[in-house]
Amino acid sequence: MRAHGCAGGGRDRDYKGRAMLVWFVVIYIALSIAIGLAASLRVRNSVDYITAGRHLPLPVVFATVFATWFGAETVLGISGTFLDEGFAGLISDPLGASLCLVLFGLFFAKPLYRQKLLTLGDFYRRRYSRGVELVTSICIALSYLGWVSAQVVALGLVFNILSEGAISREYGMIIGASVVTLYTLFGGMWSVAVTTFVQMIVIVGGLLWIAFMANDMVPGGVSHVVQHAAGAGKLQWLPDFNAVEIIAFIAALLTMGFGSIPQQDVFQRANSARTENVAVWGTVGGGLAYFLFASVPLFLAYAATLIDPTLVERVSERDPQLIIPALVYYHLPLYAQIIFYGALLSVIMSTASGTLLAPSVTIAENVLRGLLPKLSDTQFLWLTRGIVLLFAVGVTAYSLMSESTIHHMVEEAYKVTLVAAFVPLVAGIYWKRATTQGAALAIAFGIVTWLTCEMVAADAVLPPQFAGLLASIAGMLLGSLLPQWYRGKQASTVTA
Question: Does this model's pTM top 0.85?
Answer without folding.
Answer: yes
